[in-house]
Design a protein that fits this description.
This protein is mostly helical and 411 residues long. It has 17 helices and no strands. 79% of the residues lie in helices and 0% in strands.
Length: 411
């Protein structure tokens, strides 16, 4: 664990990490709070619509936040976004109390669009605050593990608050977003390291997303389809088997495996040829999710999901390691990471929709193969792109690690 201790080498990193975690907890809890509130006041359909609207807002707002942060600085943008989310929460609460579906859904969309992408900012802060190259993989591991833990902790906390009062869960969640966003913005290290990038403030080729970055963002979106489809397929399979009540506990298995394996993975040294581990992890994931598609017994399914969850965090870690290496410049890391986050949100939503559609029309036995098919698609997309961009950028993907400051800018 010494490598994790060494990460906090610079004063201010612990404070930034604390507020980042608080803001990310609020983001996870907001989606659940919207679902609980909408379901209680307007029905499950509207609850799901509100949660979906919130996630759509995040997918739209995150890239915009990344671009504005590169131009005007993270502190100003994130503090403003966090404060503007309050009217969205008020609108959603008023819409639910007044039985107004449009107001409730609109409020949820506003919350999503104004939630600062704290994870992207914190991932960008590590390299820009001077974290040594060998420890940057450990930093990505820490952020991945923290995210997994939040998805384990947030549901029961939000559920307890919603049981006391449906609107309390959403209000508390948005409060965490506000405190986390403003606190992160006011951290001195954030103001120093995540200020404006100093580039030209006009639209031009230098502001476009390069083809390699778009490729990796797309691969990340396809891998996110896996997790979205996995959740739906597990609920569907166990429901058909008469064990629907066990779904929540079974889905803890991959999260637990991901946390444990991600923590251990962060202790490994950075690979000298970025990209090889990522491809191998994807290949290992295919048979593991094929194994998940076979059982319907809760215990056997939990065991298969635990095995499938072992590479999960490592895949996310390597994705961000690769994005860090192929980004146009270190100053644009935060913007690139927000695109990756938006792609992941869209992927999860697509996985949920596709898994549900297939399970409803073709049966749970067919729907349970969607995660394995998504992994196979991610493999095909990754290796096709790696073959193409290895020729274009031999010094970026398959070379010894070097400073981002010395890396050539991709156009």
């Amino acid at each position: 664990m010494r490598r994790y201790v060494e990460l906090f080498h610079r004063p201010g990193l612990r404070q930034a990490e604390f507020f980042s975690v608080l803001g990310r907890f609020g983001y996870v809890a907001c989606g659940l709070g919207a679902l609980f509130l909408g379901t209680d006041r307007l029905g499950i359909g509207v609850g799901g619509l509100g949660a979906g609207g919130l996630m759509l807002g995040v997918a739209v707002g995150s890239p915009v936040a990344g671009r504005l942060s590169s131009r005007y600085g993270t502190s100003a943008v994130y503090a403003t976004m966090a404060c503007v989310s309050v009217p969205g929460t008020v609108l959603a609460l008023a819409g639910a109390d007044g039985r107004s579906v449009p107001s409730f859904v609109a409020g949820c969309c506003v919350i999503g669009m104004t939630t600062p992408p704290m994870g992207a900012a914190m991932r960008a802060l590590w390299p820009r605050s001077g974290t040594p190259e060998p420890l940057r993989g450990t930093a990505n591991s820490l952020e991945s593990v923290v995210t997994e833990l939040l998805f384990v902790v947030a549901p029961p906390v939000t559920g307890v608050l919603a049981a006391l009062r449906p609107g309390l869960a959403l209000a508390f969640a948005d409060g965490c977003v506000v405190v986390g966003g403003v606190g992160f913005s006011c951290t001195r290290l954030v103001r120093e390291c995540l200020g404006p990038d100093g580039g030209p403030r006009h639209r031009g080729p230098s502001r476009k997303v390069s083809a390699p970055v778009a490729w990796m963002v797309g691969v990340g979106g396809v891998t996110a389809v896996v997790t979205g489809a996995m959740d739906v397929s597990v609920v569907s399979v166990l429901g058909d088997a008469g064990n629907a009540e066990a779904a929540g506990f079974v889905l803890l298995a991959p999260a637990l495996a991901s946390v444990l394996s991600g923590t251990a993975y962060g202790l490994l040294p950075t690979e000298p040829a970025p990209g090889r581990r990522f491809g191998r992890l994807l290949l290992v994931w295919v048979p593991l999710f094929a194994l998940v598609a076979l059982p319907s017994d809760p215990w056997l399914l939990a065991g298969a999901l635990f095995l499938a969850g072992i590479p999960m965090a490592a895949i996310g870690i390597e994705e961000f390691n690769l994005l860090s290496r192929i980004a146009d410049s270190e100053a644009r890391l935060q913007e690139v990471f927000t695109w990756a986050g938006a792609s992941a949100n869209i992927g999860v939503a697509c996985g949920n929709a596709l898994g549900g559609y297939v399970a409803e029309h073709a049966g749970s036995s067919v729907g349970s193969w969607i995660p394995a098919a998504a992994v196979a698609a991610a493999c095909a997309l990754y290796f096709a792109g790696a073959l193409r961009f290895r020729r274009q950028m031999p010094g970026m993907i398959y070379s010894p690690a070097k400073s981002m400051a010395d890396a050539p800018v991709q156009r």
